Amino acid sequence: MRAMLAWVTGMGVSWLLAPAALANGWNMPKGVTEISRDIYSLHMTIFWICVVIGVVVFAVMFYSLFRYRRSQGAKADNFHEHTTVEVLWTTIPLLILVGMALPATATLQRMYDPSGADLDVMVTGQQWRWHYEYMDEGVSFTSSMSTPTSQISGEEARGENYLLDVDNPLVLPVDQKVRFLLTSDDVIHSWWVPELAVKQDAVPGFVNENWVRIEEPGIYRGQCTELCGKDHAFMPVVVHAMEQDEYDEWLAERKAEAEAEANSVDREWEMDELMERGEQVYGSVCATCHQQDGSGSGQFPALAGNDQMLDDVDWHKDVVVNGVSGTPMAAFGGSLSAVEVAAVITYERNAWDNDTGDVVQPSEIQEMLE
Amino acid sequence: MAPKLPPQHPLEHSTATTAGQAHEHDDHHHYGGPGGIKRWLLTTNHKEIGSLYLIFSLSMFFIGGIFALVVRAELFQPGLQLVQPEFFNQMTTMHGLIMVFGAVMPAFVGLANWMIPLQVGAPDMALPRLNNFSFWLLPVAFGLLLSTLFMPGGAPNFGWTFYAPLSTDYGPPSTTFFIFSLHIAGISSILGAINIIATILNMRAPGMRMMDMPLFVWTWLITAFLLIAVMPVLAGVITMMLMDINFGTSFFDAGGGGDPVLFQHLFWFFGHPEVYIMILPAFGIVSAIVPTFARKPLFGYASMVYATASIAILSFLVWVHHMFVVGLPLAAELFFMYTTMLIAVPTGVKVFNWVTTLFRGSITFETPMLFSLAFIVMFTIGGFSGLMLAIVPADFQYHDTYFVVAHFHYVLVPGAIFAIIAGVYYWLPKWTGHYPDERLGRWHFWLSVIGVNLTFFPMHFSGLAGMPRRIPDYALQFADFNMVSSLGGFLFGASQLLFVAVLIKCVRGGEKAPAKAWEGAEDLEWSVPSPAPLHTFETPPDMTSQAPQRH
Ligand code: HEM
Ligand SMILES: [Cu+2]
Ligand SMILES: [Cu+2]
Questions:
Q1: Order of strands, edge to edge, in the sheet holding A208-212?
Q2: What is the pLDDT of residue A74?
């Protein structure tokens, strides 16, 4: 009897708990696109259908457990078949499912229609950062987590957007249909922003499509959701949605920067400039593997005091531009600009007491790339 | 708990008790093989091999459980406290692999070994020596798998789904050993399945028709066919990996013209039937226990058989529901959404049948029944979240989050594992001749139920709120859920020590059980003495007249 009560209260509590928790915001976000709201409503519909079925089934079950206890003298019946009931409980669920499949199909069809996009963005997953390219605009950059390791290890207080901050967010205009083309340079990643209801795998060798039309300006955060190696947890996605005019301004600035950089490839760069730029690139791209202090770890070689690298500039350049195939060391000639590659090599040759005094010019790298 | 329980196992209903005990005594003298360790190495007796499987599975359950607790301890708080991400990934991977291939599957094979011959009235399994071989492959396979933890570069770290190219081009050097161990475990499963099919089809007592078989036998027959169909697919996909890693092929390497998505199709063509391999025998166990303690025949025996068969067939047609965000064409997504939704229908039929079996029964709540009732409730909850996951647009939000982790743990832990535990409590009197300690059993039950729900219920919410799976560290908004989950995990883990206590106590002694240990039990195993002597049914029972009335 007491056990029964425990069961019933337990069930009752958890059955109330779920809707209460969902109502309290511990739920899928409604999001800021038409699709995300449709998905949210599908989610809530199917949830309530499950709750109703659950209430009916468990009510019968607990009623029987309570009513037909042997301790209360219940005598067992002997029936074990009933065709009508069996046909009913096969067909009714079937009908409910058809009712559910219809709106789901409609939503899915709209999700699968990327036609008429105003803007194409190429999203490339790399261990462990995202690379964004605004197609036809000549603007591209990498976006890495900016939460410092000291917060992860707990030496420093954790910030509000712990693990969900990046150095360069993806900037998008609102009310425009943006098409994403997703791929990967190494393993499979998955690009997800819950508020936008976009989750799509980035698969090496394939280009996947998805799209979004954001309705409200704001900053939306997500993460990589496909296990992609050691720093899978540290590969956030941040989207900054802006009004069109703001976005245009931002894009113009970025374009100007890109042009300036392209023009600067041929000029002679100073050591200091390269070191400063190189430190940024190293911190955002290389440090996840080779460590901030160049000490490496496990399969990732140390670069501080790395004799082979320090003795042989050409090999160093070759490794960074062309990568080492069959290892996680990617070919950065593809995703970094000549200036960035030159800067990061210069930085590696002079930071952490490496002090070779070597300066690698962007023009040298440009030659290799051509 | 209940102040006044009915007499739990009225002796007056049992027959054959004294005769049985005397018989058992004789039998021990009949055993003429080698003694000591050699006896266990060489045994071809289905009961001894069954026990070996069960003991093996229990040890794997604890090893896999410790790995899970390492994961839960790291996730207790945000930040990296105990382990580094590299090791964390090894822990999730080894946990998943060990639980699936080392704990759940061998437990069901162990139960099959013990109970199928007894339930069909056969003297042993059809192929006893093969049976010995199938078992002893397992310690080799899992010894090898565990040894990868001590290899340079560590154990597999790419998830139990080992997606290429993370597991091929980017995997640790131990991946080759992982492949080898999975090959061995796979051979063991296939041989075990062949043996089970041969036993069921050829060795039923005269007069026992297919539709007279207990549902545990039926579900295992269907499971065995699933195993034979899909284990070779697994073997194929890991062999392709092996070639990619060691012999320069590029089946899954896009750089060499291969296709990483092909890997996922092959894996899940094995993987989805695999999850039914882990649940169909559980259905069989629950279908034996519920009627026993409701003292009423199972409702809809025939529809249970048909439902099991349709689930098995459909399970080959739903694999893409694990790949909805991989980037497949609309038509594929729709087809697999519909088939996945369809599989809910036969599953629902099963739940309705169990509930209706309870209706107008005469119900008591011994430990096996408690675990079975919890199975029905919580497996259904896992089924509901499965139905939600089938809605493709919504799956774009759920996929690869903790919502999925919650879903599959509800079907695996209070699903498969609870059914196994229920089966063990149910059949322990037959195995040991003693009833398991009812008081300890209840403690075990209630602590497990609370632990499981504390661990896995909050994961639904962390998943919906946006927490990806397989991460060693998480954003601050997920902290509360994770703390509760971790506490629940440790509670659940610790409660399983009670299970060990119950087992040891029951083997050592306890209230003596008669042949028919449970008043409402009808199947053939209850006609042999408790404990079951080493050799049973040397002359097959004649079922022509006394088949239990099922429909
Ligand atoms: C003490 C009980 C258990 C706890 C606390 C537990 C906890 C966990 C955790 C925390 C994860 C990792 C989730 C992630 O990071 O993605 C996980 C994964 C998993 N668990 Fe469990 N688990 C338990 C029992 C089981 C059992 C009994 C099974 C199998 C029957 C199982 C099967 C799996 C599988 C297949 C995975 C996926 C592994 C992967 O991501 O590759 N677990 N579990
Ligand atoms: Cu990733
Ligand atoms: Cu599946």
A1: A139-143, A129-134, A119-126, A178-184, A208-212
A2: 78
